[in-house]
Design a protein that fits this description.
Radius of gyration: 22 Å
Distance between the termini: 33 Å
Structural class: alpha+beta
Bound molecules: flavin-adenine dinucleotide
Length: 469
Amino acid sequence: MSVAPPAPPTDPALLDRRLRELLILPDDDRWDDARVAWNLAVDQRPAAVAQPASAEDVVAVVSYAREHGLRVAAQGTGHNASAIDSLDRTILVKTHRMHAVEIDPVARIARVEAGAVWEDVTTAADRHDLAALSGSSPDVGVVGYTLGGGCSWLARKYGLSANNVRAIEIVTADGRLVRTDAGNEPELFWALRGGGGSFGVVTAIDIELLPISEVFAGALFWSWDRAAEVLHTWREWTATVPDEVTSVGRIMSLPDLPLVPEPLRGRSFVVVEVIVTGIVDEGPALVEPLRALGPEIDTFATVRPVDLTGLHMDPPQPVPVMSGGHRLLGTLPAAAIDRILAVAGPGADSPLASVEIRHIGGALARPGEGHGALARLDGEYMTFSGGLVLDAEQAAAVARRNGAVAAAVDEWATGQYLNFVEHATDPAGFYPADVYARLRAAKSTYDPTDMFLSNHPIPTLAQVSPPVR
Ligand SMILES: Cc1cc2nc3c(=O)[nH]c(=O)nc-3n(C[C@H](O)[C@H](O)[C@H](O)COP(=O)(O)OP(=O)(O)OC[C@H]3O[C@@H](n4cnc5c(N)ncnc54)[C@H](O)[C@@H]3O)c2cc1C
């Protein structure tokens, strides 16, 4: 006979004082502000929201959830909130109050609390002439990004952020606060680095910083009627560059809104963004074949790594978006670019704001000793697209066109990368079969009752893997 778990919390009077301070319930005046995600298109409806200020607070929330048969979903910012279908009977643990960053400049380690975003780390590291493997957006969460892999501007040279982690502090399903590293609970440490948020609530993470104080970087813009010419030249150029060069080729249609700088507002461009690390002096010569195409705007300069945060022009604040169009690609033949442009380029009447192709490969593609569950990205390029969604009609149009971008390159797809998937899917597709089986075994050990709900949940060995959507 199965016994129904106790009801989720509805009466604040039943909570002890600590939990009364930590948990925000639907009848609270703060409820709508508390449940909002960075992606404003997502309407999150958990049973309660917790806003812990310390690891001890997280222990209290996890213990409470266990006693009351509730699930727990950790969230740093909500950049990937759209992948979670339902927060029914779930406490949403929002970690933004825990955002301290401590840097040991001698050991070149940053201890980063769970709610810190990349800008917190890059700014602190810059004071010591150090750089982090941060992503394109300053307000993406360090922990969510790193647990999913983490593909940075320096990625072709230094690999995934997940494989640059030295230790992780986490509250597990039994309510323990564990510090895991290569020597302590190594299977948990392995699973967390690329397996995502299925194993507990991370409270802090130690990441290695790099002694990099300058890079050569910038973006080139051309009117998008030159998209085919520019992207074909960029594609051929990527085959010639060393691992020190990471770049993105993309088409963009910028909204006619005040948040977009005047010369770009309401216009469509083809853009190439490039970062050169280590061989900074060679930067101008390396990008010369791109500059030779005569861009309308050229922002290249030698800059500090902290200045890379605006390079990709990601939205500077929460927005309602729908992303998709993602595939890892083994190769990028000219036909792949032609097909992408046919569905989303000039004349395609596309609702997408951005369609990008990232040049990956290099260190990202090489497995290494001591790497975590996501040892490498299986591909030389990856695609990603998205658009603003202000109503249901726009959402349907953006979803259809994201699907068309993915279908355009399916022929060359080698898989998908967890962080770039923003809808529910079968996580088996992110890993080789043996790695996925090992992740499920780790989930069975550390969270046998499946208390923790992540954006891309790893099932226990006893559960059925979710269907592909
Ligand atoms: C504008 C934009 C730019 C991006 N740029 C890049 C990029 O350059 N490179 C790249 O690799 N990715 C990039 N991403 C993808 C990004 O890495 C993922 O969306 C990532 O999941 C975001 O982490 P978050 O904590 O901000 O988001 P959240 O939605 O808060 O978290 C995502 C998931 O991470 C897990 N998680 C978060 N915090 C914790 C915790 N404390 N304990 C346990 N689990 C936790 C949970 O499973 C959660 O569902 C970008 C996304 C966007 C929207």
